[in-house]
Amino acid sequence: MESEAATVVAMRLAATFDAADTDPREELLQRLLTPVAKYWTCKRAPVHAAESLECLGGMGYVEESDMPRVFRQSPLNGVWEGSGNVICLDVLRAMQRSPESVMVFLDEVERAAGTDARLDAATARLRKELDDGDSIESRARGVVEQMALVMQGTLLVQHAPHEVADAFCATRLREGGPGVFGTLPPDPSGFRAIVDRHRPVPSA
Ligand SMILES: Cc1cc2nc3c(=O)[nH]c(=O)nc-3n(C[C@H](O)[C@H](O)[C@H](O)COP(=O)(O)OP(=O)(O)OC[C@H]3O[C@@H](n4cnc5c(N)ncnc54)[C@H](O)[C@@H]3O)c2cc1C
What we know:
By secondary structure, this protein is mainly α. It has one domain (2-198). 75% of the residues lie in helices and 0% in strands. The protein has helices spanning 2-19, 24-55, 58-61, 67-73, 77-80, 84-97, 99-110, 117-131, 136-159, 162-172, 188-198. Helix 1 (2-19) packs across helix 9 (136-159) and helix 2 packs across helix 7. The longest helix has 32 residues, at 24-55. Flavin-adenine dinucleotide binds at residues 76, 79-80, 83-86, 89.
């Protein structure tokens, strides 16, 4: 689910690169969404790698598996793609230089309005944060995280299977942030659908 959420934003972002030359709105979205997506993906990568390592128990920790290398390398994303603070300052710069980019971002989110009440509530909280210019630098990490999560939710409710979007909205969009992995509400049918979707299919 975490990887699907990151992928769907990467694909939407790739589409803005295709369209930016001829569509100024896509160019504005590209400018703002690029650092937003980079910030959140880089922040989630080490946590995701650690959880994946833990899923394999001791076999995930010892150097004989690939996981220690994946774990060790994962914080590098947040250094060479731009550190968290610096990417957040870049988001603020994009918003200040092109305030229209915020409107375009919110228009994109509006496409999914009314699909899921939890997404609508998260969007309302985000709008409030964006409307408040006070101490925006000190709040920047929180604001950028919310922008990333709301965009992920927006795209998942439109493009992912219901079970994936539902589980995402239940866990990632709750007030107070996403917290640790593995806190989906009890719903065995949803679990099964999500696991089946990502289970490797052995070739015949
Ligand atoms: C293995 C590796 C390969 C790399 N390859 C490339 C490459 O090919 N091309 C490339 O362009 N870069 C590359 N980089 C990234 C580049 O080398 C720097 O590491 C990167 O630009 C960050 O700068 P820095 O290391 O000086 O850290 P700093 O900028 O000193 O950051 C240190 C800390 O200070 C914080 N900070 C810095 N400025 C501010 C600010 N204004 N406000 C608040 N906090 C701030 C940061 O958030 C961070 O936590 C690579 C990095 C590594 C580790």
